[in-house]
Amino acid sequence: DMPNLPMQKIGVDDLLGVAVYDSPELSRTVRVAADGTIRMPLIRAQVRALGLLPGELETAISDALRQEKLLVEPVVTVSVVEYRSRPISVAGAVRRPLTFQAYGQVTLLDAISRAEGMSEDAGPEILISRVQPGADGKPTTLVQRIAVKTLIDGADPESNIRLEGGEEVRVPEAGKIYVVGNVKKPGAFAVRESTETTVLRMLAVSEGLLPFASKVAYVYRREASVGGAGNQMEIELEK
Question: CA 134 to CA 154: how far, in whole Å?
Answer without folding.
Answer: 33
